[in-house]
Design a protein that fits this description.
Strand content: under 5%
Radius of gyration: 17 Å
Shape: elongated
Largest sheet: none
Number of strands: 0
Low-confidence stretches: none
Distance between the termini: 64 Å
Mean pLDDT: 84
Order of helices and strands: HHHHH
Helix content: 55-70%
Structural class: mainly alpha
């Protein structure tokens, strides 16, 4: 059953079409929240099967370390 599904070109096409959607959504949301217009535009226009989005999420949109308040 699994071999027949993975061998089906339509199944693979659907996976390739659905894979980037959640990644693009998260990356666009983060870029917008951080006010990074250049990243937002690049992520919106460039379609890389979510490679650019994943690089942005895990590499460039790291949250800054919060420094503890000294008393």
């Amino acid at each position: 059953m699994l071999d027949a599904t993975l061998g089906n070109p339509y199944f693979v096409l659907v996976l390739l079409l659905l894979w980037p959607i959640p990644w693009k959504g998260v990356a666009l949301w983060r870029a917008a929240r951080r006010g990074e217009l250049k990243w937002f535009i690049a992520l919106l226009i460039i379609n890389t099967l979510a490679i650019l989005e994943i690089i942005y999420i895990f590499g460039f949109s790291k949250r800054p370390q919060v420094k503890p308040v000294q008393q």
